[in-house]
Amino acid sequence: MIIKVRVIPNSKRNEVVSRIGSILRVKITMPAVEGRANEELCDFLSDFFDVKIFFFPPAKRGKRQRKNF
C-alpha cells in the first residue's frame, strides 16, 4: 500500500486535516529543520494507522512536502 502525504510543518498540533483525492494533508508541530518534521510525521502516522514505525522507511521520506510511504 502506498500512502501519499502532504506535510504542513510548524502547526499548533499534530493532526490529519483532510484528504484530497488520494493525498492526506497532515499538520505537524515540528519545524522542517534537520529532518525533525519527518521524524514527527512518522511517529504520528505510526500511531494514527496503529503500525510500527519501521513501516515508514527513511530513504522514502525525502525533503519535500509531498511524501510517499
TrEMBL record:
InterPro entries: DUF167, YggU-like_sf
One Pfam family recorded for the sequence: DUF167
Transmembrane segments: none
Domain of life: Bacteria
Gene3D superfamilies: YggU-like (3.30.1200.10)
SMART domains: DUF167 (SM01152)
Family: Belongs to the UPF0235 family.
NCBIfam families: DUF167 family protein
Protein name stated in the entry: Uncharacterized protein
